[in-house]
Amino acid sequence: SGVEVVVTDSNGGVHLETTDSNGFFRHVVPAGATTVDVVDATLPVGALLGPGSGDPDVVVVPDGGRAVDD
User: Fold this and answer.
1) pTM, whole model, 2 decimals?
2) Rounded distance, CA 13 to CA 7, Å?
């Protein structure tokens, strides 16, 4: 919890989110390519991103849909 994540939406809007007590966050963005970037300096000491995790990572949000980035 408390990890900051920068979300850049397909229109170039930049949004700062903070993870909840379970390590999740949610942000509504327009359809298209969205970049999700963990602010490494806010990770707890000794914490690492999971295997296969990209940082930053690009997810494609479908029109009227949702996307998840693990």
Assistant:
1) 0.89
2) 8
